[in-house]
Each structure stands twice: as structure tokens, then as C-alpha cells.
Amino acid sequence: MPKKATKPKRRLREKRTKGPKEIAKAIEEIAKKIVREINSSKDPIFVTKTRGRSNVSFDEKTGLIKLGKKTTARNFLNIGHARKFMQTMLVMAKTHEYLKENKTAAIREIYYELKHTLGESKENTFEDQSESDACIVDVEHAVDTIRERLNLHANPKGSLYGDITLRDRMHNNDTFNCLKLGRGGWSIMSRMEPEEIEIRKVNAKFVLVIETSAMYERLVEEGFAKKHKAILIGTGGQAARGTRRLIHRLRYEKKLPVIVFTDGDPYGWYIYSVIKQGSMALAAHSEYLACPDAKYIGMTLDDVERYNLENVTEKMKEGDIKRAKEMLDYAWFKTKEWQRQLKMAISKKIRIEQQALANKSLSFVADTYLPEKIKNKEFLD
Amino acid sequence: MPKKATKPKRRLREKRTKGPKEIAKAIEEIAKKIVREINSSKDPIFVTKTRGRSNVSFDEKTGLIKLGKKTTARNFLNIGHARKFMQTMLVMAKTHEYLKENKTAAIREIYYELKHTLGESKENTFEDQSESDACIVDVEHAVDTIRERLNLHANPKGSLYGDITLRDRMHNNDTFNCLKLGRGGWSIMSRMEPEEIEIRKVNAKFVLVIETSAMYERLVEEGFAKKHKAILIGTGGQAARGTRRLIHRLRYEKKLPVIVFTDGDPYGWYIYSVIKQGSMALAAHSEYLACPDAKYIGMTLDDVERYNLENVTEKMKEGDIKRAKEMLDYAWFKTKEWQRQLKMAISKKIRIEQQALANKSLSFVADTYLPEKIKNKEFLD
Questions:
Q1: Are A109 and A222 within one domain?
Q2: Which of B107, B122, B174, B183 should we substitute to test contact with A (largest number of A Cβ atoms within 10 Å)?
Q3: Cβ–Cβ below 8 Å for A184 and B182
């Protein structure tokens, strides 16, 4: 076992999250302040956190990527800010309405809902979803919450399989065990907040997060979950927010260790790091989404020699090599082992996929590769 | 209702599919013939169907894209054929092994399983998955079956929601109702053959196939499935084979009409056409995968004016316009209505997404758009 199912260190506990009423109230407070400014003929100002690398840092203590305290003010009477100010107000008003009416929307839906031509002008409120997306982040930061609690969400992606019983509080309290849904498993939702989806019961020793859908299917097929008491989560590439939230909750609510299994290439390793430390783009939300003590099981470039997989490596593309070079500089990849791994990728210019293990035999990954590494605690940290 | 739940026309019934033993036997027959040729010092020949446009046609009678009868012979002693001949033999032997040992594999797995260096040479059996994929199609055609029955499959994708009870015969006979799995629904598997997944019971009037995951979630959220007795299938873009097979089975086994709902652009319309008539790449398998009487509900470019969505259209990219022009020439888009629709796209250069309906209100699609069109039978055919 990858470590006993110990409690995560206390300092990693997630921040208390605000409830819908508190969030609606916080939005109202900002709106009232702006109305007061208008009424007293002052320039209305909206304050949010500064984004971008200048305000993002890696917190060694918690192992999380975090957003700093720098703030940005947006003045309505500044011609460079006016449009964005207007857009932000629209997003704030609409999410406030969602909260009051208990509705939820996809981020593409709020974009479409708010898009219209202003008065007699030819000016549209939004020209592109990237504009409303940016406003959503601004409101998240201003109110200090995650978008799911503004009743917004991105697209769902990911599957769940294993002895875990969920209850959907918003859907007749449906209660179902994800080991009893055939081999397909459950489609993870875009919103995985505890108020909506309750984790009723888990009978497992750890969570195995898997990059490719095909490898997820292989492990289901091989009976890996039952035999090793694992919860399997297939992310289908980069993990969606709902999937990250579920992994986070399994770690923090259910104290399950999290093991990540991806292709052996910069893209796969980055998927791992996003699950573990969070991402720069969502630096403000690492506490809700990340699992700083997640472990990486593979694929590593050392596996190539160890398991004689030289024949089934692939050449890395230029873009991958560039990515690996960038990652060398990320604070959260500064460990000796990851530096070695990244440098090996850059010099050998090869990558190795999860499914390349089929070169040994179809069941090799489930019979040998994973159990061996788990037993010997051979993880990258 | 889109038409009463009538039986599909008899001529559209799917071909009887061969069982695993018959298929193994067919592979053995081909192998024996080749061995005989070798033993009598003849040039061994492998015969399969010719692919590509020259052998693909649209069958007006059945409404299916079909592969013709032209065959291609591959001679081992022809230096241009030898490598591919060797590869095909490897794939044939391996799928025969899968059938005998009751194993299944993803198409990427068989590629990796078979990839190795030949003897003392520096020659690899395969350099790229496209090579083994091509051999798989050749074996499918030579044996006259679908890859799922060679125990192969592609990646899974797609979600299922509604009052439908499935049983997974290969997984403890798990029996579950897809209306009782919370709002996530069931993850559709890559293999949806009746021998594995049995459709036990369906309580629905029609199947609604939805292009985007977000719209699928919206309709789940709005209670559309219950209110209108619909089975919802989210394809998440182009439908995966497993998803197409499930749609096909719901039409043919359960006699449910199939309605398709995609973005209003050439890509979305093509998704529809693949579900309805099949695709050129898989022309040989249309009978197993397609639903020639599926109906198209939207989005159409007429919806833009009808619902005042002018503000929320998007500009078509050059690639989309090119695609629309190609589609004008496809026999299965030769109906008056589709020609009009495609020409409108080409001249107006706009597209309209499903989620653009949120511009009216979040629930507009579920309360008004779909029910109105279904009631009035406003479909494109």
C-alpha cells in the first residue's frame, strides 16, 4: 500500500467554503458600494485579485500553487476599463440571480445568456466567451469563492468506478454504488460540491487516477479495483474541475491516498502536477481542488529500461520538448527526481505511453506493473 | 412526438452477426489457405475488400453508406505488399488468440502488443498505430465482421441518462437503471454488443442524441428526460463507436425513434449524418452502426431568425466553409432541405451553437425549443 490511509497534514485542510447566501450577500455588498459611489458622483471601482505570474507563487509549506494578495482596481471612468467593468457587472448580476433562483449554468451558457447588443449601438456586451470567462474569474476572486459556488460550471468529463456509494441530493436522493454499474462506471459531473453529491460510503484503500480512458477500461476489465480495493478515476486527459474536486474530496473527506498514473511525457506529468499542486490559471482555488500529497506511479522514463520497452517508445515532438524545458523551471518540479526525469526526457527525446505496457501482455499493467510499484512504494513525489 | 414508435422498415434490419466461434473459424480458414499456398510453393495471397471512395456508395434503398464488392489482393512475394502482408498476419493471429482466450483489447493495445523488432534486423513490425489500424479494417472486411467481434475496441466516450435498465453480463450481471444514477448518468462503454450489455427494459418514447456534454447536462438538469419520456445520449462531439452501436440498438431492438440535436454547423450536421447513414471510413459497418430513419431537430440556420439569435451566431472558419462545400456533394445530403441549409451556411458564413439558446433563457431549450419542434414534427430528414 502506498502509505497507510493517514490523515492529510492539518495545514492542508481546505478553507471553509461560503454558502450560497453568504456569497449572494458578498455580491450585494460589492454592488452596494458601487451604487454608493455612483450616487456620490465618484468613479465606481471594482476590486479583484491580480492574476498572472506576478501574483502566483508556489507555497512550499502547503505544497500548493497559490495566488498572492496583489489586487487590481478597475475604474468605470477609465476608458480602458469601462467595457470590462460593464461586463463584470453583468456577470455579477447574473450569478446573483442564479444564486437567488437556485439555477446553475455552464460557463458557455452564461456567455450566451448575457450576450446582446447594447441599446441602439452596434456594440455587443461580449464578443467571445474568453471575455465572460475572465469576468467569472474576477468575480470568483472578488467574492473569494469557486465558480461552482457561483452556480457556474465547465464541461463534465471523467468516469468513476469502484466500491463507492454516492448520493445525488438534487436528484431524488439517488443512491448508487459505482462498482455495480457494469464496467462503464459513473459519469462524473461538472459540479461535485458536497451540497449536491454526497460521498456516502467508500470501501477502498486508495484512489488511482488514470489519464487515458482506454487504460481505465483495461483496469476495470482486469478486476484491478476489486482485487486491490482501489477507486478508479479516468480523467480522459487533463482532469476536468469536477473530477479534480472529487479526487480532492476523496483525499480530504475520506482520507484516501491518491496515486496518479499517466503517460510518461511532459503532458502526462503536467496532468499529475495539476492534480497535486493545482495550476497557475486556477491558483486561487488550489485549496479546493488540489491534493498536495498525491503520489506519481508512472509512466517514468526509467520504466523503459526496467521493463524493456525500448521498442514501444515514441519520439517526442518539439512542442513536448519545449514544455519539458519550461517545467524544469517550475518550483513544484524542482525535486531531484523530477529534475532527473525531465532532463532525461529532454536528452533522450522519447516518451512512453501507459498502453505501451501491453507490449508485455494485456494484463501486465494490472498483474505486475502497478502492484509491484505500489508494494515497494516506488513513487515519484 | 416525433412519429409513433413504429418498427423500422424491414429492409433496414441489421445483418445477422457472426459469433466468436464462427469468426475464429473464418480466420482459421484464411490462415489455412495461406499455409497451403506456402506448402505448394505458391505466392501467398490475402484478399480483403477495397476501401476508399471508389468502392463506397450511398444506397438509396436502405439509406446507408455501403462498401461495394471490389476486392484487393495482397501478395506476399510482391515487395510493395510484403510488409503489410506480414502485419496483417500478425493482427489476424492476435485477434484469433483474443477470441480463443476470451480477451479484449483496445486498438492501441494490440498495436503495442504486436510491436517488436524482427529478429536481428532493425525492422519493427509496426512503426505507427495507423499501420495496425489499417490491418484491423482489412481483417474485419476479410472475415466480414465488426472489430468489436474481433474483441477489439476504440476509446469509450459518451453518457447515457433516462429510464433504461441495462445489464452487464460480464460484470456480475449488474443491473441498473440509468435514471437512478444521479445527474451524471452512465458512462457508455466502448463495447456495447448484446452479448455483453443487455438492454433489459426501456420506458421511453424516443432517444435524443446530443452533441455537447454541456447541453446533455442542461437537459438532465431541466428534467427533460422524465417530462418527455426521453432517453438522453450525450456524445461529447463525434459519437464513439460504442455510442453509435447503442443508438442503433435502441432503434432496432427497442423500436425507439432517434432524434439528433447538434450545433448548427457542418461539423454538427456531419455528426448527425454519421449516426444516420454511417461514414465512409466505416462503410462496411453501417448496418451495425447506423439509423437511417434518424431525424434532425436542430440547430438549423433557420433557427437564427425564428428565435432572434442573430446576436449569438459565430463566424464560420474557412475550414468549416470548405467542409460545407464538400458536403453539398455527398449523396446523403442531396435532399432539398439539406442543400438549402448547406448553401445558407456557405453564403451567410455563420454557425449557431446549441448553447446559444441560453440567450433566450437557460430553460428555453427544454421548455420551448425541443418540445415545440417535436410536437410539430419539425425535423430535417
A1: no
A2: B183
A3: no
All three cell numbers of B335: 435532399
Determine, yes or no, domain membership for A4: no
- Looking at residue B201, its amino acid is K
> How many CB atoms within 10 Å of residue A216?
29
Model confidence over B257-297: pLDDT tens digits?
A: 999 999 999 999 999 999 999 999 899 999 999 999 999 99
At residue A283, the 3 state secondary structure works out as helix
B50, B74 contact by CB (below 8 A): no
User: Residue B317 has what DSSP assignment?
Assistant: P
The catalytic position among A112, A252, A267, A270 is A112
Whether B52 is in a domain gets the answer: yes
Calculate the average pLDDT of chain B: 93
Q: Based on the domain organization, do A127 and A225 belong to the same domain? A: no
Q: Is B272 a catalytic site residue? A: no
* Cβ within 8 Å, pair B213-A105: no
For residues A137 and A165, membership in a common domain is answered with no
Chain B residue at shortest CA distance from A353: B112
pLDDT in tens, B42-74: 999 999 999 888 999 999 999 999 999 999 999
Cα–Cα nearest to A151, from A114, A187, A97, A200: A97
Burial of residue A301 (number of CB atoms within 10 Å: 0-12, 13-18, 19+): buried
A181–B181 C-beta distance less than 8 A:
yes
Please tell me whether residues A199 and A328 are part of one structural domain.
Answer: yes
Mutate to test the interface with A, among B94, B109, B165 (most CBs of A within 10 A): B109
State how beta strands A206-210 and A258-261 pair: parallel
β-strands A164-168, A105-106: how paired? Answer: unpaired
Select from B106, B167, B214 the Cβ nearest to the Cβ of A108: B214
Beta-strand (E) ranges in A145-196? 152-153, 159-161, 164-168, 174-177, 186-187
A164 contacts on B by Cβ (under 8 Å): none
Q: Are residues A247 and A306 in the same domain?
A: yes
C-alpha cell at B93: 493471429
- Residue B303: domain span: 156-375
Which residues on chain B are in Cβ contact (under 8 Å) with A312? 112, 115
Interhelix angle A241-252/A266-277, nearest 10 degrees? 50
Distance from CA of B63 to the nearest CA of A (A): 31
- CB contact under 8 Å between A155 and B104, yes or no, is no
A180 neighbors A203 (Cβ within 8 angstroms):
no
Q: CA B37, B38, B44, B48: dihedral to nearest 10 degrees? A: 70
B368 DSSP 8-state letter: I
Encode pLDDT of A177-202 as tens digits: 999 999 989 989 988 999 899 999 99
State how far the alpha carbon of B365 is from the alpha carbons of A231, A296, B110, in Å.
36, 43, 43
Name the nearest CA neighbour of A272 among A250, A242, A295.
A295
Same domain, B278 and B308: yes
Note whether A113 contacts B361, CB cutoff 8 Å. yes
Chain B residues whose CB is inside 8 A of the A97 CB are none
* pTM reported for the whole predicted model: 0.90
ipTM: 0.86
The alpha carbon torsion through B36, B40, B42, B43 (nearest 10 deg) reads: 40
- Asked if residue B233 belongs to a domain, the reply is yes
**For residue B299, is it within any domain?**
yes
- Rounded CA-CA distance A55/B97 in Å is 57
Percent of chain B that is helix, strand, coil (3-state, to 5)? 45, 20, 35
Given an 8 Å threshold on Cβ–Cβ distance, is B184 in contact with A182?
Answer: no
